[in-house]
Amino acid sequence: MAGTHLGKNNMPTIDTATGQAAPAEVSQERARAIFTEIASQYEKFNHYSSFGQDRFWLRKLVKTLPLGPTSCVLDVAGGTGEVTFEICKHHKPAIIVLSDYTPAMLDVAKQRIATGDNRGVCVETCVVDAQDIPFEDASFDAVTMAYGIRNIPDRMRALREIHRVLKPGGTLAVLEFSTPPLAPARAFYKAYLKWGIPAWGQHFTGKRDDFVYLADSIKAFPKQHEFARMLEEAGFQDVNFTNLAFGAACIHTARTGQC
Description:
Structural class: alpha/beta
Number of domains: 1
Largest sheet: 7 strands, mixed
CATH topology: Rossmann fold
CATH architecture: 3-Layer(aba) Sandwich
Number of strands: 9
CATH superfamily: Vaccinia Virus protein VP39
CATH class: Alpha Beta
Oligomer: single chain
Distance between the termini: 37 Å
C-alpha cells in the first residue's frame, strides 16, 4: 500500500505525533530523546499539569487489578515507576517487572527503589521495547501501562505482545489521555493541550518543544471506542473503559481468555 510503513511482522507503523504513516524509528528515537531529557522532572510535570488528579487516576488504575501474593506483574512503559509504586502501596504481589524503553526513566525509578518506595515488594527494572517484549508466553498475571501506548509507533504489535505474555484470564489495565466526549470539555481540553501543556513543560524542564510533542501525541491518539476496538482486535476480551476528568483521561481494562 502506497505511503504505508511496515515494522516487524509487516505491521503498519505511524508517527505518534500525527497518527500518519511513518517509519517506526521516527517516533522511537524522538521518544527516547525527549524522555531522557525530562526524566528527572517527569513526575512533577504529571502532578501539576493534571492539577493533582494524576494520583487519583493511578489509584483508580491500580484498584482494577486482581492481585494476590503470588501475582507477577509487568509494568510496560513504566517510566519512573509511578504505577509500580502505586501497586506497592495497595497490593503485595510476588514481583513487579518495571520496564521502559528509556534507561534514564528507569534510573529515576531505581533511586526510588533505593529509598524504599517499593515497600518490600520485589521490583526488577528492565529496558524493554513494548513492540518486542523479551518474556515467555503466559508469564504474567497482570500488565499495566500508563501514558505509554500513545508513544508506540506499532501499537497493534505492542498490544499483541502484551496479550502473549499474559496468562490465561490475565488482566491488562491502561491509563491514557483521551478525548472528552462533550463539546465544551473538548474545546477547553484542546486549548489546554495547545497552550497549557507546553507552558508547564517550559516551567519544569525548560523544554517547551518536548511538551508540544506530548500534546500533539495526545490529540493524535485514537478515541476511547477506537482504542477499545484495537484491544479486541489484539485478542482481548471483556474490554471496558472508564472516563476520568470528563474524558480527558481514560482507564481501559481487558482480559485474556481462559484456556
